[in-house]
Amino acid sequence: MLRHSDAAQRELLHGHLTGSAWLVSRDGRRxxxxxxxxxxxWLQLGGHADGDPDIAAVAxxxxxxxxxxxxxTVEAEIFDLDRHWIPERGEVPGHWHYDLRYVVRCRGSEEFxxxxxxxxxxxxxxxxxxxxxxESVGRMARKWVGRGFS
Length: 150
Fold this sequence. Notes:
4-stranded mixed beta sheet, 2 helices, 3-stranded antiparallel beta sheet
């Protein structure tokens, strides 16, 4: 296993850490997903760490930036891990994202604002995600249901 002091830097082109948010509603039964502009898929919110080694804080920051929601909290423990390939895009060669995913909870208003990174945002019932869409979203839905929506 290789170790890099710069694993949170996107310039580490063979692969780098990213942080994502399983952003759940106050009642825990819905999750906010983004129709990702570049990837053209419905996914959890998240993005590059840009050098920040506190990936839980990255997940929270990305959730706030991409949703416009402000009254959010993040759980300290990793909820899910994923490794996925990002295809070549322009000058950036294809590379791996090692995505650490955290539960982020909405504590206030659930009225979101769509950022420039998204084509759309939508609150989705977690139960509806169990067998459809992106494999990793389905996996997180199963984990969340296994926790009893709490």
